[in-house]
Write a structure and sequence with these properties.
- This protein is of the alpha/beta class and 128 residues long.
- It has one domain (2-121): Rossmann fold (3-Layer(aba) Sandwich), CATH 3.40.50.
- The chain is 43% helix and 18% strand.
- The protein has helices at 10-23, 35-43, 64-73, 91-99, 112-124, and strands at 2-6, 28-32, 52-55, 82-86, 104-107.
- The protein has a 5-stranded parallel sheet, sandwiched between helices.
- Strand 1 (2-6), helix 1 (10-23) and strand 2 (28-32) form a beta-alpha-beta unit.
- The radius of gyration is 13 Å and the shape is globular.
- The two termini are 16 Å apart.
Length: 128
């Protein structure tokens, strides 16, 4: 299983990696520091496509929303579940992003145990 995390915050990426490794050491973790880096990775046919994408919304340059639109526009990538992973708690924004193809909207946890729980929830569910 492969997870792609797209997040400009280095500390959040590190925390996510640690929680993922604690949940299951066999999970392949790929991180991108921004949406452009992520799209380059996803569009490189030599790379393994992730089973899940965790996408931060608020990033410099190409936003998470724009990245989501690009992912869902590409037939090769469209079926990958995208989890919006953000500090926002806006319900209208959540509904709008789900309308654009996001599988789930979740607020970024700040404690390692909460990140672990979030990862275990996502990896334990059946996403279609």
């Amino acid at each position: 299983m492969t997870i792609l995390l797209i997040d400009d915050d280095e500390d959040d990426r590190k925390l996510f990696l640690e929680a993922t490794a604690e949940y299951d050491k066999t999970v392949n973790y790929v991180a991108a520091a921004d949406a452009m880096e992520a799209l380059q990775y996803l569009n490189d046919t030599g790379n393994v496509l992730p089973d899940f994408i965790f996408l931060d919304l608020k990033m410099p340059g190409l936003t998470g929303e724009q990245c989501l639109i690009e992912i869902k526009r590409n037939p090769r990538l469209a079926s990958i579940p995208v989890m919006i992973y953000t500090t926002s708690r806006d319900e209208k924004e959540s509904a709008r992003l789900k309308g654009l193809g996001a599988a789930h909207f979740m607020s970024k946890p700040v404690w390692p145990d909460d990140v672990y729980y979030m990862v275990s929830f996502v990896l334990g569910e059946k996403w279609t």
